[in-house]
Each structure stands twice: as structure tokens, then as C-alpha cells.
Amino acid sequence: MDPSKQTELEAAAFRALVAHFRKRTDVQNIDLMNLSGFCRNCLSKWYRAAAEENGIDMDYDQAREIVYGMPYSEWKEKHQLEATAEQKAEYAAKHGDS
């Protein structure tokens, strides 16, 4: 496959993933972390790292806004629920954090 075509396809897949995450606000980040080991915040960090590798100055909040489709504080207020004790315990068991 031509490298530029591969990049186009990867970009399309990324846009589809971001659109899916924006639509599925019912899925909490802790659930994503517990099931897959990454979440919207991880995707934001990867996006920022890619920007920086390409000489683009971008902070974490800017990257989060790209992934969330709005400022993170607004998304949190509208969609984030308090994690349950079970979710937190599962996260701690899998990731060694609390």
C-alpha cells in the first residue's frame, strides 16, 4: 500500500474513533481503562505527543478538546459520573493505582 494512502486510512480510522467516543458519552473513561487499558485521556496524550513530534506546540488541554469535542471541564460536568468502589478497585488491581 502507498504510504500516503495508509496515512489517509489511519487518519480516517482515528476520526471514526474520536466520533464514536464523542457519541458514546455514556461510556466512562474508567470503564475504557478497565476493559482496554486506554481512554479518551490517553488518546489525547498520544495526540499531543504526535503534535510535538511534528513541531506543533500543543498543550494537554488543547489535545483533550480535540478528542472530547469540547473543553474537558465541560465534558466532565455534563457526562462524567463518580467512579464506583468496584470500578476503582478494578482499576487499582489492573494498573497499580488508586
Provide an overview of this structure:
With 98 residues, the protein is mostly helical. The protein has a single domain (3-95), classed as SMc04008-like fold, CATH 1.10.3340. The protein contains six helices and no strands. α2 (29-36) runs parallel beside α6 (85-95). The longest helix has 21 residues, at 3-23. It is globular and about 45 Å long. The termini are far apart. The mean pLDDT is 96.
Shape: globular
**According to CATH, what is the topology?**
SMc04008-like fold
> What's the architecture in CATH terms?
Orthogonal Bundle
Q: Please, what is the average pLDDT?
A: 96
- Biggest β-sheet: count, sense, barrel? none
State the order of secondary-structure elements, H for helix, E for strand: HHHHHH
Question: What is the number of helices?
Answer: 6
Q: Give the DSSP E fraction (strand runs of 2 or more residues).
A: under 5%
Q: Report the C-alpha radius of gyration, rounded.
A: 15 Å
Strand count: 0
Helix and strand content put the structural class at mainly alpha
Tally the structural domains: 1
End-to-end distance: 44 Å
- Spans of 5+ residues with little confidence (pLDDT < 50)? none
CATH class: Mainly Alpha
CATH-level-4 superfamily name: SMc04008-like
Helix % is over 70%
Structure described in brief:
This protein has a single domain (3-95), classed as SMc04008-like (SMc04008-like fold, Orthogonal Bundle), CATH 1.10.3340.10. It is 72% helix and 0% strand. The protein is built from six helices and no strands.
